[in-house]
Amino acid sequence: MLISFSLANFRSIKEKQTLSLVADALKEQFELLNENLLTDTGGVPLLRTKVLYGANSGGKTNVLLGLFTFLNLITASSLEADLTTVRPFLLTDYTAEEASEFEIVLSVEQKIFRYGLAATTTRVTKEWLYVRQGSGKESMAFTREGNNVKFGAKLRTQWSPLPTLVKDERRGLIRDRGLVLLQALNLSIPQAQKFRTELGKISVILGQGFPGALRARLMNTFKDPQVLLRIQGFLHGLGIDVEELRYLDKDSVLEIGVTNGEAKELITKLSEPTILFAHRSVDKQGKEIKPIAWPMEHGESLGTQKVFWLAAFIISAVENGEVLVVDEFEASLHPLLSEAIVDTFQNPQTNPAGGQLIIATHDTNLLSPGLLRRDQVAFVEKDSQGASELYSLSDLTGVRNDSTYEKDYLAGKYGSVPALDFPLLTPEKSE
């Protein structure tokens, strides 16, 4: 489970900012919000959901992009990380030459792993990993400065044979772009593998669409009819009525009996796999006849398509205790759909495995004391130097558990709203 993610000197983020899912000691108005915390986490009570708000270009996306970039660095298939995506804060001359820094804290089988690195676009300058059991003291697994690596005495045997191999400089295991973590994974060191498995449970979806690679990966899972049946049930629960979902590629076209002429033509011209949506159909007398079916991309709204793609991640998250991170969450979604998805994660009955949801959104409909705790709402705002700062609603003084969060936010009481100046948009009248 995700405890926190921190980053510094990355894009619009200058000083260290932390996205924390650690629950504050709050007393909320609705008892469910006091009881639905994740507690089987190594002694740290965690939130199920975190929602980020802020003006356009305030830096919300950069926080999530930082997590996406970091995960790509440390889950590389090679032994060297692709550092070209590391981008420092450029609005001061000194930060442009300094390393960007990232750190993640995860709960893994009742242990707390704290791993981080600092890197420029050409080399890794620092790397560290600490492990803690419950409320005990942290133990150093390793630290790195440049290409010099030190291993902690307490955990040294658990990372064998890496300490011995690293000490042998002739092997050249630690390179400028290389990571100690990737070397440990290459050696199948159990602690590193457990940490990597937990990292693999984090999915970050940026922008409004789903990249081709992500779609292709999901499409393979949709070949299983049971997967589509569960997604269909989830769509029904959100009020999206569909008679049947079916995986469709060129090989299966002939197996599908489609009577609608236009849909049949679209299907026969398939260039890549898709999902067939079948809907209830009636004749002139209102008698139900054979369902009408069409490829999702040609007959379903953008909102339905987005929920369909999200559904696979949502179901996996709530069933397997995974972390789903979504930017521009509200795009193409009705506010009630957005609320229903958030509520799915918030409710222990629909989220029994403790999946976590992190979203960036402008949907103020979610700012309700009946849906979110004060520590589940965060804001991202730029200071006078153009640097993004992240803070929680619970950090602000005077915010009660029965406050009108949405109204107060739109009124500017919490900051992170656009500084509008409409007269500048109106041409001056000549006298």
Count of strand segments: 16
Top-tier CATH class of the largest domain: Alpha Beta
Quickly count the domains. 2
- For the largest sheet, list the strands in their spatial order: 2-1-4-5-6-7-8
Strand percentage lies at 15-25%
Mean pLDDT: 90
Which spans have pLDDT < 50 for at least 5 consecutive residues? Answer: none
Oligomer: single chain
The end-to-end distance, rounded to whole angstroms, is: 64 Å
Keywords summarizing the entry:
ATPase_AAA_core; 7-stranded antiparallel sheet; 2 domains; ATP hydrolysis activity; P-loop_NTPase; 431 residues; Rossmann fold; ATP binding; ATPase AAA-type core domain-containing protein; alpha+beta; 6-stranded mixed sheet; 12 helices; 16 strands
